[in-house]
Amino acid sequence: MNVWLAHHWHAFVLALKRLAGAPIGNLLSIIVIGIAFSLPAGIYMLLENLQAFSAQVSGTPQLSVFLEMGADSDEVAQIEGRLKEHPQIASFEFIPRDSALRQLTQDNGLADLVDGLERNPLPDAFVINASNLSPAALEELRAELQKWPRIEHVQLDSAWAKRLDALVSLGRLAVLMLAALLSFALVAVTFNTIRLQILTKRDEIEVSKLIGATNGFIRRPFLYFGAIQGMAGGVAAWLIISLGIHLVDDELRNLTRLYVVDFPLYHLSPEDSLTLLLLSACLGWVGAWLSVANHLWQIEPS
Amino acid sequence: MISFSQVCKRYPNGFNALKNIGFTLEAGEMALITGHSGAGKSTLLRLIAAIERPTSGSIIVNGQNVSTLNGGAIPFLRRNLGLVFQDQKILFDRTVFDNVLLPLQISGFDSRAATGRVRAALDKVGLLDREKARPITLSGGEQQRLCIARAIVNRPSILIADEPTSNLDADYAKDIMMMFKSFHQVGVTVLIATHDVELLRGTPLRIFALNHGELTV
């Protein structure tokens, strides 16, 4: 156990020394990895934000049922009765046209405009929460209610949110493909860095083999190097995204305030950040492993 | 203990480096291998450390059959051998101390115990005051002593040296040979390929003479 720890500690320290030994070259590699990774990670972060935004704006999907302007209180009561008995409807709220107008005046500061109206242009309405929130069930319910008498229009409030969701999942797929491609780039960068290292460490590797180093002993510092460089690249990507958020956040807030929501841009969640770092470390490790497996056997003592 | 039995080594180009070699060197013995260049001295030593494999025959080192040892076991065989190479194989990118430390890092010593051992090994070869020096600043004799320190730091039971005095003038060469003799006197099995048999005149030891790949004594 102590020997095992000593070996790993030795490999880890050696990897750090090698990193520090060629600071400029290694820094450039790390920045390249960071830029490559900031692309998919940044787009992913934006998609997460877009989804959070759509959830914040749309909430749970509701059906708005607008009655015809001429509907009287008996007809309203009749519709209310039917809604109560309908099995697909979890709850509903009646919004009389007068209170709808009042709310419009208060919420959106349209008092002047409303004052200028001769009469209330708003119809009576029901806002319905369906018991089954699947898109198909909602659409079916909407079509059914639309056919009832004295109902002018039934609107599914979440339709645009659903379209956004579909776009987001399409975006996710694109991110996944981008991430897969750039992962190859990371593996390739590490592969090459380690290849050069092996070439310059030729003497050391040969001597080590001659005096009893196992392949594992020789391989380990390179693997640590790859993993550390990969993870440093992940950190660089994270920092690039942070910088991006910092630069964009104020402007974005100004923009979203125009749509009456205050929406700060969120950074990657701790879980996603951790995934980013682990993934980049793993890919660095894989690149180093491939390189070592490809080049180490060529250096045999002779 | 090192034991060769019917060992042949033929290179892919058809050259027969060793022909039907058989001898046994008991634990604690000291022996020289002599012969003209190309007689197979280096090849014989390299077979012991499994740097090369015999074409046929068996080689027993410390009870292990080296000729059939699998690749994974070779490093552990080498850790029990102290090897001094003909071309020295000093690493010039690190200090004298770090050169001698390398075998201990490979064996997984913790750094405090390793430091003590490295100093002891450097002390034995008289390089303790040069531990922070770069190998390039050492004289030829000092570089050779550095190689010996690296070979003995693991306290091996067998010490193998290939032409350790070839590039040294007579005084330095004598120093080096006396050093090997002192290791032999504390019980280490020593096997040296050399031209300079005269240097150890008066010391009881065995001499294996190689001629065109064949043992003549």
Keywords:
heterodimer; A: 302 residues; alpha+beta; Alpha-Beta Plaits; four-stranded antiparallel beta sheet; B: 217 residues; alpha/beta; Rossmann fold; 2 domains; six-stranded mixed beta sheet; 6 helices; globular
Broad structural category of chain A:
alpha+beta
Amino- and carboxy-terminal Cα gap of chain B: 19 Å
Q: How would you sum up the global shape of chain B? A: globular
Please indicate the percent range of residues of chain B in DSSP E strands (runs of 2 or more): 15-25%
Q: Biggest sheet of chain B, in brief?
A: 6 strands, mixed
Strand content of chain A: 5-15%
Biggest chain contact: A-B, 20 and 24 residues
Mean of pLDDT of chain A: 85
Task: Give the total of beta strands of chain B.
Answer: 10
- Number of H- or I-type helical stretches of chain A: 10
Order of helices and strands of chain A: HHEHEHHEHEHHHH
Shape label of chain A: elongated
Fill in the CATH topology of the largest domain in chain B.
Answer: Rossmann fold
Largest sheet of chain A: 4 strands, antiparallel
**How much is the radius of gyration of chain B in Å?**
17 Å
Low-confidence stretches of chain B: none
Given as residue ranges, the uncertain stretches of chain A (5+ residues, pLDDT < 50) are none
Q: List the helices and strands of chain B in order.
A: EEEHEEHEHHHEHEEE
